[in-house]
Amino acid sequence: MELTVKFCPCNSEEDLHELKNHLKQLSNVDVVENRCLNYCGQCLVQPFALINGKNVVGNSVDDLLENIGETIRELSEE
After folding, report:
1. Which of 1, 11, 37, 51 is a Cys-bridge partner for 43, taking CB atoms 3.0 to 4.6 Å apart?
2. What SS3 state is found at 30?
3. Mean pLDDT over all residues of the chain?
4. CA distances, 34 to each of 37, 49, 60, 66 (Å)
5. DSSP alpha helices (H): ranges in 1-78?
6. Does the predicted model carry a pTM greater than 0.90?
7. What is the pLDDT of residues 5-27, one digit of tens each?
8. Which residues lie across from 48 on neighbouring strands?
């Protein structure tokens, strides 16, 4: 299953750089940056991404990476 992971470039931009590069190496993941993901204000509060439209958050970048991994596994099993 092809997965699209969208990030807001205003959301922890420097901290998410390594995470985005990690995801880009996965064969079934397309990493996209959209200026607005319609989750106004969330990008100022906590790191998040949209995976095939599902909002995935974390209290830190490491937490977000773990939650993204879980979501990718769940969606891949469907």
Report:
1. 11
2. strand
3. 89
4. 6, 11, 21, 22
5. 17-24, 42-45, 61-77
6. no
7. 999 888 877 788 889 999 999 98
8. 57
